[in-house]
Amino acid sequence: MRRLGLLAGLLSLSLVAAGCSSDEKSGGEILIGVNIEQSGAATVLGSAELNAIRLITDDINRDGGVLGKQIRLVVKDNRSDPAESKRQVETLVEQDKVVGIIGAGTTSATMPFVDYVEQKKMPTISMGAADIIVAKRKYVFRTPPNGSSFVAVMMQDLAAANVKTIGLLAVDDQYGDGGLRAVEAGSRQAGIKLVGTERFSPKATSYDAEVARLVAEKPDALLVAAIMPAAGKAAKAITASGFQGRVYFDGGAGAELFVAGAGKNAEGMFMVHSSILAANQLTATTPSALTQKEFFTKYTQKHSTFSGYASYSADAMHLMAEAIKKAGSTDGQKIRDALESLSYDGLTGSFQFSASNHGGASGDGLTVLTVRNGGWVLAQ
């Protein structure tokens, strides 16, 4: 399996060697659309993901581009709004004539346009986490691991901690729906009893009532399925309730964004996330650890802090470039076919797409981390 390296040197050499096919766009550029949350409720997520996309694109272009051409990003702000997200995708396809789309960053901003890109046969890689994004889709892929992968790692850790009962607090949207299904299935398989489930609106200002009802069931641990800023509000409500058990979030909570949003309430809470989040603690003795440390360092040096969302979009950019190279073309059907047959090690984990699997990275890159002294460390 080949390695998605940050330097992209070997990649770019092979891209140039592949040459340009007859159906390449003229003008010496390959246009890739980026539909991302640059404003609105998910700004912190979108900004971090756009930073990573630009970082990887600069590396690829510096080393020769793709098929002998430079990549030019056409960036659109979907304003964290589902309707605006669909409108921007239509603009990217019909006016900007991009060859592929990266984004959106969230499930809610991705779902409105998945049928449209299917109709237009536009290869698209989303950073949204819900499994439904790629269900029965031919042209849509995503990079975050499946919800079942996050839950499997959680359940292993819960079992090791002798946890017998859990409660679930899940946002009342498609992201929370996916989390609920994964937790119900994962807990049954692990023999851990789900004693209560509470759903909440992401627009609510307080989740105290929902948390109180869960705590009243006396679970050994609480699981939360939500992205920021809702995840941070959930952490505050759980702390205020006086709950003394273990508390777990999945990678959608945003890692450093979770710590910033939850503040001191995050201390001692757990998150299942790609091991890249703790890359500064990893001993780089394998190609995977070396690649993660390199990207972690480069991103941190440029943007002062590392984002837990960065690897999802960095992998999306790498995957799109690799698919264009493998296809030897910017034809949408050929790029789609190349994506579907890719087998690749990324920053988030390994990717093994197929006709029946357009989901994200495998769970092999996931680990359990905890907040200690205001920062993420590997859980012991």
Got a strand count? 15
The Rg value, from CA coordinates, equals 20 Å
Number of helices: 13
Mean pLDDT: 88
Q: What is the fold-level CATH name, i.e. the topology of the largest domain?
A: Rossmann fold
CATH first level of the largest domain = Alpha Beta
How many domains? The number is 2
Distance between the termini: 30 Å
Relative helix content: 40-55%
Q: Give the neighbour order of strands across the main sheet.
A: 8-7-9-10-11-14-15
The CATH homologous superfamily of the largest domain corresponds to Response regulator
Strand content: 15-25%
Apparent shape: globular
Alpha-beta classification = alpha/beta
**H-E string:** EHEHEHEHHEEHEHEHEHEHEHHHEEEE
Low-pLDDT residue intervals, each spanning 5 or more residues: 1-26
CATH architectural name of the largest domain: 3-Layer(aba) Sandwich
Account of the 3D structure:
With 380 residues, the chain is of the alpha/beta class. It has two domains: 2-145 and 287-363, Rossmann fold (3-Layer(aba) Sandwich); 147-280 and 366-378, 3-Layer(aba) Sandwich (Rossmann fold). 41% of the residues lie in helices and 19% in strands. The chain has 13 helices and 15 strands. The strands form three sheets. A seven-stranded mixed beta sheet has the order 8-7-9-10-11-14-15, sandwiched between helices. The protein is globular and about 65 Å long. 54% of the residues are buried.
